[in-house]
């Protein structure tokens, strides 16, 4: 009888331990971050055209590819700390950034890396240049988002479209910072169809970043460096990190170039001439690129 009671008592203790372990495991599970809410302020990491999306290649492609010209700037999508910055046989020159919203982002195949491990970076800061290093078949940025942290099996990878809105192959994207209601905000062209007309009365500003010159800034906006210098009453050879430059003070109509467009077809559609558009954008040729923003009219 005593032996039976002892066995019953031991079995009860074991059942209690198992129950406590089970309950403890349930309560200790970390809550998954809500990506859409916590990334709605993010900027795109580069200007270019989407060439591949999440989940392709039989599910092995765990990011999004943005193609552009070699040397195009690559930006941090949000503030954070660089957790890794190194050369990989697969990723090439790659930078990892951990953000306060429990995510880690990856920027791969860079031509050059400008940010080192342990560095604090700001949203929109230029961290590298687009390239084709590592296992890459052409110039592009491979960008990934991971909840909590990146792992070798990429089990934490999430579709970047959750953060930026649905992106499709051939879609032009860019990262532009504008002045609105006396504060800087990020434009999110992922939610805007390529080729859309925009009547803009908002002044556009640019914050000077490391390595930039007035000429590189002017080229980014398809403007003339001398015009920006005159607008800000500055010496074009002397700009400084963090300086706030007024870029477009006038009301104007913009058009984002889409696939199949020519300068002549755009001019005809907007009842103007190709030469007039070239003059407004300080362009010397008729060559235009998908995703390029053209000023069509000034008011």
What would a concise description of this structure say?
The chain has helices at 2-28, 35-38, 161-164, 214-220, 225-232, 263-269, 274-280; strands at 48-52, 64-67, 73-75, 80-88, 92-98, 103-113, 120-121, 126-130, 140-147, 157-158, 172-173, 177-180, 183-186, 197-200, 204-207, 244-248, 252-256, 293-298.
Would you give an account of this structure?
- With 299 residues, this protein is of the alpha+beta class.
- It has 2 domains: 37-172, Distorted Sandwich (Glucose Permease (Domain IIA)); 193-298, Membrane-bound Lytic Murein Transglycosylase D, Chain A, CATH 3.10.350.10.
- It has helices at 2-28, 35-38, 161-164, 214-220, 225-232, 263-269, 274-280, and strands spanning 48-52, 64-67, 73-75, 80-88, 92-98, 103-113, 120-121, 126-130, 140-147, 157-158, 172-173, 177-180, 183-186, 197-200, 204-207, 244-248, 252-256, 293-298.
- The strands form 4 sheets. Strands 1, 2, 3, 4, 5, 6, 7, 8, 9, 10 and 11 form an 11-stranded antiparallel sheet that branches. A 3-stranded antiparallel sheet has the order 14-17-18.
Shape: elongated
What Rg do the Cα atoms give?
25 Å
- Weakly predicted, low-confidence segments: 25-31, 177-202
Highest-level CATH class of the largest domain: Mainly Beta
CATH fold-level label of the largest domain: Glucose Permease (Domain IIA)
Distance between the termini: 100 Å
By DSSP (H or I, 4+ residues per run), the number of helices equals: 7
The count of domains is: 2
Task: State which percent range the strand residues make up.
Answer: 25-35%
């Amino acid at each position: 009888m005593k032996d039976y009671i002892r066995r019953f008592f031991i079995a009860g203790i074991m059942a209690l331990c198992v129950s406590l372990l089970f309950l403890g495991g349930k309560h200790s599970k970390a809550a998954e971050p809500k990506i859409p809410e916590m990334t709605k302020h993010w900027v795109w990491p580069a200007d270019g055209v989407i060439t591949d999306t999440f989940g392709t290649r039989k599910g092995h492609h765990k990011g999004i590819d943005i193609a552009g010209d070699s040397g195009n700037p690559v930006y941090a999508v949000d503030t954070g700390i660089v957790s890794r910055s190194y050369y990989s046989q697969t990723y090439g020159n790659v930078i990892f950034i951990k953000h306060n919203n429990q995510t880690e982002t990856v920027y791969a195949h860079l031509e050059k890396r400008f940010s080192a491990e342990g560095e604090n970076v700001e949203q929109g800061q230029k961290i590298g240049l687009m390239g084709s290093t590592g296992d890459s078949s052409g110039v592009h940025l491979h960008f990934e988002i991971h909840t909590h942290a990146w792992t070798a099996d990429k089990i934490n990878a999430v579709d970047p479209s959750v953060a930026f809105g649905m992106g499709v192959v051939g879609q032009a994207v860019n990262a532009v910072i504008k002045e609105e209601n006396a504060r800087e905000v990020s434009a999110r062209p992922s939610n805007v169809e390529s080729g859309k007309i925009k009547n803009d009365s908002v002044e556009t500003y640019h914050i000077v970043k490391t390595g930039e010159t007035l000429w590189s800034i002017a080229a980014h906006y398809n403007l003339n460096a001398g015009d920006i210098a005159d607008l800000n009453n500055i010496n074009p050879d002397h700009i400084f990190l963090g300086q706030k430059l007024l870029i477009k003070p006038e009301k104007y109509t913009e058009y984002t170039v889409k696939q199949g467009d020519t300068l002549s077809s755009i001019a005809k559609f907007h009842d103007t001439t190709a030469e007039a558009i070239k003059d407004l954008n300080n362009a010397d040729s008729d060559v235009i690129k998908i995703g390029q923003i053209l000023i069509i009219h000034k008011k």
